[in-house]
Amino acid sequence: MATEALQRQIQGKWQNSFARLNRDQQGITGLLGFSESWTLATDFLHPRDLNDPKANREWDMTQVRNAVETLSRSKMLPLLLENFLEEMRKQQYLITNDVNELMRQYENTEDIHHIARLIYRLLEWYRAWVPISELGHTILSAYTLTFQTHIYSTLPPSFSRGFKQLINATFDLAGTRTAPPWIPPTPAPLQSSLPIPRPDLPLWSSFEQLGMLDRYESLISSVCYEHIEAHILETCTRKWGERMLQPLREWMTNKIVPWMVMPYARGARTAEEARSMLQGVGSRFDFHVCKTLSDLRTREIFDIIIDFPDSQPALEDLKECLQRVDQRSQLVQTLRKANRKRLLHPGADTKDIIAQYVSIIRCLRLVDPPGVLLFKVADPIRRYLRERPDTIRCIVASLVGDGESGDSLVDENEPIQPLQQMQVEDYTDPSWEPEPIDAGPDFRTNKPSDVISTLVSIYDSKDLFVRELQVLLAQRLLAITDGNFDRERRNIEILKIRFGEAALQVCEVMLRDMTDSKRIDQHVQSQKNMILRPTIISRHFWPPLQAGKFTMPGQFKQIQDDYASEFHLFKPDKMLRWLPLLGTIHLEIELEDRTVPADVPPLEAAFIELFSQRDTWTVDELVASVGSVDRPAAIKALTTWVDLGVLKDEGGNRYRLLEVAEDGFSSSSGAPRPARIVEEVPAVLTVEQQQADQMKVYWKACFIEGMLTNLGMLPLDRIQTMLKFAPGYDRTVEQLGAFMEAARREGLVTASNGLWKLSKR
Amino acid sequence: MKVHVKNWHAIAQWRWDTGAADADDDGEGDVCGICRVPYEGCCPSCKMPGDDCPLIWGECSHVFHMHCLLQWIGTSSSKQQCPMDRRPWVTAERKVDRTNNAR
Question: What is the 3-state composition of chain A as percent helix, strand, coil, each rounded to the nearest 5?
């Protein structure tokens, strides 16, 4: 039931459409012309099948253009486009078939050849279907979009893999001029005027036309990243002896940049243009080079440090990389982890830990001069070292240049400086700089910078070092028999610079005792020729020495007394007190069938002297005749002679002199075994022994004993509190606990429920 | 069997021969009554013990570091008396003769 108005409306529209299609021509000729044009245009635009030779027919381009012109005037182009896209959709299965076919071949053979073919095939399809440019930009871009949408939806996941392989293969083309089989020998027709530098140019153009460069951009750059990584790993791994960063950058310039021109700056006409186009992406790749190298070096850092002086170039590389890449925290983490795993465990020698620590100090100072990295890495090491009992001894031993280990911690070339104390920051200093940005709250810029100061600063006070130094020096000086202690003097002079004159005053006295002894001995020898050459020391200035009392028997006593009286004549107001356990005696035992030379400690000499009185002794008899000697020490001394084949253990604590050698020992006097009995017990008490001895004073002085007698049972902290009233008591509860534990083992006290009491005796 | 001693490197400590020294064997030894430092140590103003910081004997049988005593005698409040027994200080002859005779 159309109303009149509606009818009029329809009529008007009809008239309009007619007029538009007829284009004001007579009758319906316009309409006919339009119809013809439409058929021609749709035929022309029909997405044809490439495999069908019939579809590929020649077109009269003028006719086509006229037809398009007609359609355009009739404003029918959108309709044409819609029609065209619809046709395309119907024909898409053709492309899909091709894609599937080629991808199947690729998946079967993994040959990038098929991927390349696929690319060209797609390009062929694209070119075959592309509308002529007269249809306008809109149609072209709509076409491209539809085409790409379709191929991307068709391409299977494995295409990415193949594509990557294909890109990867293009790296190898860099230098070559001959194209590999998967690149068509004839270059694609539409080309820029640039001379073709590389054989893979057509491939890249195809990528671009198919819109693959944009879509697979990340894929392409990841291929490049992987290529760079592989190259770095291959060339730089464990190569620390030379700088790698510069060669890597050259490699980038020579190998990667020419490649980069393809995906990123193909359109560039001049080198200048190419450079500006490559700038952004180039710096991204350069960053990647730095990152990869710094990752690699970070992984290797522990071994680099072990190799240190030889691996310096690697560290310089790392330093340069770290400036570009923010990997400092990774470096710290990795190194800390490696240290924990490889260094800070009970199996590592303290000496090695310290040596590695010193290397770490040197290396990280090189990488990061302000020392933030070092501070973070060193902290666990320092805490660990503080817990080791022999840390100080090791440091001191290396300070004075341990004879055995050739490499001293102290660099010979390093100037000797006084120990540096922490300084308060001087904000008035015009060259003051704030702490680095990643410094922790504990970080101090004015850290002691030389290695020794750093090592000494592990502990809060340097007194511990000085004490240990005295012990070490005493051990060495007492072991000197040839009177040559120039090395020790030199060491002390060096250490004086470090620790200050006052701290080493005691050492100075020790050295003077040595010179005095030499002088006195010269005088005494000039008066009377003696075989005894003593070192005369000032007590109170030497660390406590192995005390022990026994009297040398026979001729030894005579020698000692002779010397003492000569000494007394020379120094009338002084007398000598012999330390019988110390020193060495060079003896020759003359037996019936042989002579045995030996270097032995005095106790051994005393025993063998006793055997010259009588052939058989028991241990107890021997001990009784020299005075008070530990039984284990006595047995050890006797064993020395048994080992030398002079005595024989007859069981039941009896020893017999072998005037004639028994079987098993070379009896012929021609080959006396030169024996050197190294004194195993150090002459000087270690610091721990000294502390234990001091603790005994507190016991002996009846502090603890009296306390427990008067008060019965006491907990440890009560004892500690009360001991604090004693003058000079400076032990911690832990030390006291250790001492009480030792006392319990000796049977002096018993403990129950944390309460200590005297054991009933 | 005979034992021939070829060479002997021994360690000894020196002590001042104060006449009474034999009694203490392993203790800290006698101390100077003025500075409370052992005789074999050195007085507070010295750094080297021994001949550089000798002892001084008094007629009253008291023994001090020489430097300590001289400093004491130098003060007016000392009235030239021994700090231990307040008798006038008279420096005794060294005990050299006595010990030599004793031996």
Answer: 60, 5, 30
Q: What is the distance between the alpha carbons of residues A100 and A740, in angstroms, rounded to a whole number?
A: 86
State pLDDT tens for residues A350-394: 888 888 888 888 888 888 887 888 888 888 898 898 888 888 888
Which member of A531, A539, A659 has the closest CB to residue B6?
A531
Q: What's the gap in Å between the CA of B88 and the closest CA on chain A?
A: 24
Q: A597 contacts in B (CB within 8 Å)?
A: 6
Interface of B with A in 66-95 (CB under 8 A): 94-95
Is residue A434 classed as helix, strand or coil in its secondary structure? Answer: coil
Q: Report the CATH number that the domain containing residue B62 is assigned in CATH.
A: 3.30.40.10
Q: Would you list the DSSP string of A628-670?
A: S--HHHHHHHHHHHHHTTSEEEEETTEEEE-SSPPTTS---TT
Domain range for A754: 687-758
Residues A564, A649: Cα–Cα separation, whole Å:
36
Smallest CA-to-CA distance from A112 within A176, A170, A152, A177 is with A170
DSSP-derived 3-state class of residue A618: strand
Could you report the per-residue pLDDT of B35-78, keeping only the tens digit for each?
Answer: 888 888 888 888 888 888 888 888 888 888 999 999 999 888 88
H helix or E strand, kind and range, residue A533: strand A532-537
- Whether residue B11 is contained in a domain is answered as no
Residues whose CB falls within 8 Å of the CB of residue A40, separated by 6 or more in sequence, listed in order: A63, A64, A67
The DSSP letter of residue A252 is I
Q: Where are the beta strands (DSSP E) in A355-457?
A: none
Nearest to A577 among B2, B15, B50 (CB): B15
Query: Is there a contact between A194 and A271 (Cβ–Cβ < 8 Å)?
Result: no
pLDDT of residue A188 exceeding 70? no
Which of chain B's residues have a Cβ under 8 Å away from the Cβ of A598? none
> Is residue A447 scored above 70 in pLDDT?
no
In a domain, A300, yes or no: no
Q: Report the chain B residue with the minimal C-alpha distance to residue A590.
A: B2
The β-bridge partners of A751 are A756
Beta carbons of B1 and A572 less than 8 Å apart: no
* B100 touching A (Cβ < 8 Å): yes
- Phi and psi angles of residue A405, each rounded to the nearest 5 degrees, phi first: -80, 115
Q: Does B9 touch chain A (CB under 8 A)?
A: yes
d(CA A129, CA A49): 9
The interface predicted TM-score of the complex, written ipTM, equals 0.85
Q: Sheet of A749-752: strands edge to edge?
A: A714-715, A755-758, A749-752
Output the pTM of the full model.
0.67
C-alpha A719/C-alpha A738 separation (Å) is 13
Q: How many domains does chain B have?
A: 1
In this complex, the residue of A575, A612, A657 whose CB is nearest that of residue B17 is: A575
CA separation, residue B37 to residues A362, A382, A471, B65, B75 (Å): 46, 38, 22, 9, 20
Tally of structural domains, chain A: 3
For residue A642, with 0-12 CB atoms within 10 Å meaning exposed, 13-18 middle and 19 or more buried, which class applies? middle
Q: Are A613 and A620 in contact (CB under 8 A)?
A: no
Does one domain contain both A619 and A717?
no
Which residue carries 């012990």 as its tokens?
Answer: A471
**CA nearest neighbour of A547 among B27, B39, B26, B23:** B26
Q: Where are the beta strands (DSSP E) in A569-646?
A: 574-590, 595-600, 616-618
Contact across the interface for B11 and A534, Cβ inside 8 Å: yes
B14 touches chain A (CB under 8 A): yes
> Nearest CB to A582: which of B11, B47, B54?
B11
CA angle A546, A552, A557 (to 5 degrees): 125
In a domain, B37, yes or no: yes
B53: containing domain = 29-94
